[in-house]
Amino acid sequence: MSRLIVISNRVSAPSGSHSGAQGGLAVALEAALREMGGIWFGWSGEQTDVFTGHVNLTRGEGYMTATVGLEEQDIEEYYNGYANRTLWPLFHYRIDLAEYERGFADGYHRANLRFAETVFPLIEPDDMVWVQDYHMIPLGAELRRRRCANRIGFFLHIPWPPRRLLSTLPEAHALVETMFAYDVIGFHTQEWLDSFCEFAAAEMGATIEGDTMLAGGRRIRLLADPIGIDAKEFIALAGSPRARLTHRQMIDSAVGRNMIVGVDRLDYSKGLEERFLGYERFLSEHPEERKELFLLQIAPPSRGSVESYQRIRTTLEGLAGRINGAHADLDWTPIRYVNQGYPRDVLAGVYRAAKIGLVTPLRDGMNLVAKEYVAAQDPEDPGVLILSRFAGAAVQLPEAILVNPHSAEEVSDAIFQALRMPRAERIRRWRAMMDNITGKDVIWWRRRFTDALMEEAMAG
Ligand code: ADQ
Fold first, then answer.
1. How many angstroms separate the Cα of 78 from the Cα of each of 49, 266, 355?
2. Sequence-ordered list of residues with C-beta below 8 angstroms from that of 324, at least 6 positions apart, any chain
3. Is there a contact between 211 and 354 (Cβ–Cβ < 8 Å)?
4. Sign of CA dihedral 424, 429, 430, 434
5. C-alpha dist (Å) from residue 24 to 27, 121, 367
6. Which ligand 1 atom minimizes the distance to the CA of 25?
7. Which residues are annotated as catalytic?
8. Residue nearest (by alpha carbon) to ligand 1 atom 38
9. Nearest 10 degrees: CA dihedral of 297, 303, 309, 310?
10. Cα gap 450→128, rounded to integer Å
11. SS3 (DSSP) at 406
């Protein structure tokens, strides 16, 4: 049987247990690696003076992790630069924030070449290689240049931008060309997949036949494969002692008010500013309801060395301060704004205590918080999910109240509707969402991908 080689920018340390300390993706990839054996390869997160390609190997349960350090210039140009200042904003439709610099593109290419050089000797002829996400798009092509004949798949965790937006990237053609090296390419939704096909067909002469693309002299299988959470684990977490304790503490501290919760990395794609404005609109439009609820926004800072992330932090602090200043009373603060991460069992308790989950990204590949919020609810008295139409998750969770996150009016109306929703309707909607979340969990996601990769091997 083939081994699996997972390649991603960062590698989770082997957990050895299911303590719930890790996210669903790490759990799913680990489970796949344990089942198939193999290697999880990526950047160690460390800086080295000179790139040596020295690999740090650690034994996990049934597989190895292999990590490599990068030079300062690589980290600056590849990770902080091209990945986080060029591709991330562009792929989230924010060309106003995207920075196009040749130095970034060169650094991105160099880092991928170095990854390929380092991982290639670890790959055996029957191994299946699975490359993850936008940091690593050209990696497959770099492996092919080294005559790697293995099956190689690629999964994109973020949206694929529309053709006209992608055309603003100076290296768009070269970048897409490198994708033709893969045997299977996966996206969360048909929409992202279609955008990819449109660019490849219109700009690069690719032909599409059903779920297959013919391009660069190769045959590529395309897959819409929406990622899920580890639903079983999350339901168990929600019933854990720490989740129950947190739940009680949250209910006590709410003193009878309804809690709305938002949980996001502090990132401009998550629509936090727009969310605060939508909530403020609700406060202004419904003065009679105001003191009956509050918003808890948990947003741990991320990518702090990138300027646009420093800016959003300042903007949000100002906005939360202004809204609280304008509306707060002696015994009531409208927004509790918290800038830290919490263990997953604590988060589960927080979700369960919230009457409304407010998940309003402006653009999101999938969004796992929406699924976690639903999975943590009390089946007898579930809360209501308000979800952005522009998150990949909206395709799978149409029973949420779907909103346009840019419209403060829609967000305000949705909060009102959620507060008024009868219990029977809440249960009906929750049940339908929960069926999707448990049926299409993270194990289902990764199996569909590795099965497709395996089938391609048979076909080829
Ligand atoms: P992210 O942009 O990071 O992921 P998301 O899918 O919501 O977004 O995952 C965030 C994860 O971090 C969740 O598991 C959540 O519980 C956790 N998290 C967030 N805030 C936290 C906090 N304060 N404390 C602890 N944990 C916290 C990218 C894409 C998404 C896609 C995923 C997976 O942007 O669209 O769903 O990858 O493919």
1. 16, 21, 41
2. 333, 334, 335
3. no
4. positive
5. 5, 29, 12
6. 33
7. 157, 364
8. 157
9. 100
10. 8
11. coil
Q: Which helix (H) or strand (E) holds 433?
A: helix 423-439
- Lowest mean pLDDT segment, chosen from 10-19, 159-168, 385-394, 437-446: 10-19
> Pocket residues for ligand 1 (CB within 6 Å)?
23, 25, 157-158, 227, 263-265, 298, 300, 341-342, 347, 364-369, 372
State which ligand 1 atom lies nearest to the alpha carbon of 23: 14
Q: Which residues have C-beta within 8 Å of that of residue 429, sequence separation ≥ 6? A: 384, 385, 399, 400
Give the whole-number percent of the chain exceeding pLDDT 90.
90
Measured between alpha carbons, how far is 449 from 6 in angstroms, rounded to an integer?
12
CA–CA distance, 34 with 52 (Å, rounded to integer): 29
Using alpha carbons only, how large is the chain's radius of gyration in Å? Answer: 22
C-alpha–C-alpha distance, residues 300 and 141, integer Å: 35
Which atom from ligand 1 is nearest to the alpha carbon of 298?
23
Q: Do 16 and 33 form a contact (C-beta atoms < 8 A)?
A: no
Closest CA to 112 of 137, 132, 149: 137
Does residue 335 contact residue 358 with C-beta atoms inside 8 Å?
A: no
pLDDT tens by residue, 170-199:
999 999 999 999 999 999 999 999 999 999
- Mutate which of 234, 368, 371 for ligand 1 pocket (most atoms within 8 A of beta carbon): 368
Contact criterion met (CB below 8 Å) for 125 and 150:
yes
Determine the distance from the C-alpha atom of residue 216 to the mean position of all C-alpha atoms in its chain, rounded to a whole number: 29
What tens digit of pLDDT does each residue of 87-110 get? 999 999 999 999 999 999 999 999
* Cα 145 from Cα 141, distance rounded (Å): 6
What are the pLDDT digits (tens) for 387-426? 999 999 999 999 999 999 999 999 999 999 999 999 999 9
Could you read off the pLDDT of 23-73 as tens digits, one per residue?
667 877 888 898 899 999 999 999 999 999 999 999 988 999 999 999 999
How far is the C-alpha of 106 from the C-alpha of 104, rounded, in Å? 5
pTM exceeds cut of 0.90: yes
